Amino acid sequence: MKYYKLLSVSVLFSSFCFGQQYFELNDASKNYNLRIKVEKCEGGECGGKGEVVLFNKKNTTKVQTLVSDDLNFYLNENQQPTSNIIELYEDQSPVIFDDFNFDGTEDIAVRNGNQSSYGGPSYDVYVYHTTKKQFVPSSELTELAYDNLGMFRTDQKRKRIITFAKSGCCWHLTTEYTVVPRKGLVKIFEKEEDAMGGEGTLKVITREKINNKWVEKMKVYPIDQYYEQ
Predict the structure, then answer these.
(1) What is the pTM of this model?
(2) How many whole angstroms separate alpha carbon 82 and alpha carbon 79?
């Protein structure tokens, strides 16, 4: 498994001159206010070395500082960073809070450059350690956020982590993982959509792990019919 250096970010008030920029972000998390510092902002885009400082919402004490080699993000219409936005081919925020490992506590992902597939956004992912009372790096989750199309999604109801991959216009792969205590990530489902054969058809292959065995199904659709569904 690859190792990725894990880093992180925060938010303050913004200034509009060149040089270091500061932003405050108080609505990204249920538990923390954020202070973000980033090396530079120009033309609505920020990047370079940055840090995210977390403060306890209840008593304003500083909790932790996370750093990023390249805290790359775009400012919204109010010249502020967004938070918790994950759009497959569009905006992805510099900071994302969610319960990534489904243990009931809030975790955090911090943007670190554009090192995922097709030069998309990549993230360092941290999970909350209840004993240490700190966010600790997760190499497994960070790997998912580097090796696929940007940040992964979570399905909290089904307790699934969902990633997306592609090759050109005509091949897409959706993969689902579950988190097993003391074992980590386990892949349990994938859907392959393959239109590389031409002829106006699309082959859909699903693979699902049932009773510890993989079950594969395949179906061929007319492309126009499939995308109307």
Answers:
(1) 0.88
(2) 9
